[in-house]
Design brief:
20 helices, Neutral Protease, domain 2, Immunoglobulin-like, binds zinc ion, alpha+beta, binds ligand BES, 3 domains
Amino acid sequence: MAFLSPMGRIGALVLLTACGTEATDPDNTIESVLDTTKYVMDTHSNALPNEAVITHMDLDITVDMLAQQIHGTAAFDIQATTKQIVLDTDGLTIISVTDSTGNALVHSLGDSTLLGRALKVDLPIGIERIKVEYSTGKNAKALQWLVPQQTMDKEHPFLFTQGQAILTRSWIPVQDSPGIRFTYSAKVKVPTELMAVMSASNPQKRSNDGVYTFQMEEPIPAYLIALAVGDLAFKSIDDRTGVYAERGVVDKAAWEFADTGKMLAAAEALYGPYRWGRYDVIVLPPSFPFGGMENPRLTFATPTILAGDRSLTSLVAHELAHSWSGNLVTNATWNDFWLNEGFTVYFEGRISEALYGKEYAGMLQQLGRDDLNATLKQIAESKHPEDSKLRLDLEGRDPDDGMTDIAYEKGAAFLRLLESKVGRKKFDAFVRDYFDRFAFQSMTTDMFLVYLDKELLAPNNVKLNINAWVDGVGLPPDAPVPVSDLFAKVDAQRTAWVAGKPAKELQTKNWSAFEWMHFLRHLPKEMSPQQMNELDKSFSFTRSGNAEILSAWLEQCIRNNHSEGYVRLDQFLNTVGRRKFLVPLYTALKGTDKGKILAQAIYLEARPNYHSVSVHTIDELLDWKNDQPPVNF
Ligand code: BES
Ligand code: ZN
């Protein structure tokens, strides 16, 4: 368990192998570092998997949509070398813990910390299976219970879960660490007018009795267990892919995601067979706090990517790519998060390039780099400037707070640099072998660096300042610079407008959503009311049905005090709960005196519509106190 301190052992090992010297310390050989039979210490879980670990879960739960509570049992197969197993819980009521014959087992719940409460269960000799009966608490962090008014069809309630990073423990008592994998089955009872789907084999039709059964036959970590319950319909795209959504949205979703099968084929051509059977996407109500979540077999997605023109579907490529980077080879701890997201952004770019060409992928990269630069600036000025390292140290903190664009964009930039050093052919072979060699296993940054050196850098005689990339702050100077000719053209049009050319005369024909996003994000810092009016009159931004374009425009409205946009802003913030949109908008509001008051007023009303992860972030951003009185104007 005393695995590696950041850079301790590995630094020495990389040096040794680089000099061609055989490492002699048995703990320090390449084989021992790449040995995945021992669990790595995860500071964000109470579990002690090297002592006792779960290998399979059978979940049997009832979802009470009215009481907004889940009640049932989670039974586990266990492998133990000690007489106790520790599970994670957060806000759960533990009703009983029994062995497979129903005998009560001695158990206790530890103190409540950032990690929730440890559930310690005594394991008399010979006990290899336990069953925990439990119910979820009020405000369970993973769960968002929606009343009909918060759904798109406005007729039925809805429930969805969000497990990543450490929220699964708030709806299932489980060893909630990305390094611990297990298979699962589930029996879920819901009201008969609703349908349940999970990150597992899924129904395509409503059952008569409201009972649904699921199997996940590949071992996955707890953060990838997911459930959604609502008035869902299914529509197939092709024989391997399809969409779930509320009835009124499913046709639109199927049209938007028509290319999903092609994305899947492109991904397989790059990095090997898809190992999960079907790949479906569920479009959730607008309060879903993320763009997408890569729950295996069933990506959870925000409806804000239903732009009506397929312009935002690279998000599906991203979540699909996680079927390899993240779900197949998984970050062992949240400090290694960049291994999940950096690889996925890189892979997303390659899928996008295969389907839509280099120009498209170039725009994606440029947008990502702009995001990265903004994040770097913000982190440099924050309480945690070390968060711009790829290898994080999140001990003692909520991991969600340190999981930023760094992992995504600095991570992807690092991989693009590696690609540029050895060429695409060798790099692709390396990545493909990496996914095969470590399939269904966890990966630490240390292990990756050893494997990288052994399989790619040393054989190709590549010298790189790996340390600057992995354990240094900021973006190293050898980062590849994205280029986009299409964005250069957008820049030329914007410059012409700033110099006085009327907006109506700009050459914007055939601009994609990405080009509009780039245009909007790079407008001058200050614009006059006339300029704002001219832009809106010419391009109808306030009425845009594309959430990326709309949110970029609303941010400009706030910064330039363009009150014509405020009705739409209020409506947007009251329906959409996607954190990526909320953060820049509330941040912009916070920047002006009038905006500050407006932010408080809007948030007071909107807050009950957001999922706990968004609430957590915006509470902190706005310095929100729970008992905030309503703001008077
Ligand atoms: N796994 C992430 C979402 C996530 C990250 C949840 C950290 C909890 C903690 C997912 O794959 C993701 O990255 N989603 C992005 C979309 C993407 C295209 C960058 C998002 O939600 O915006
Ligand atoms: Zn991701």
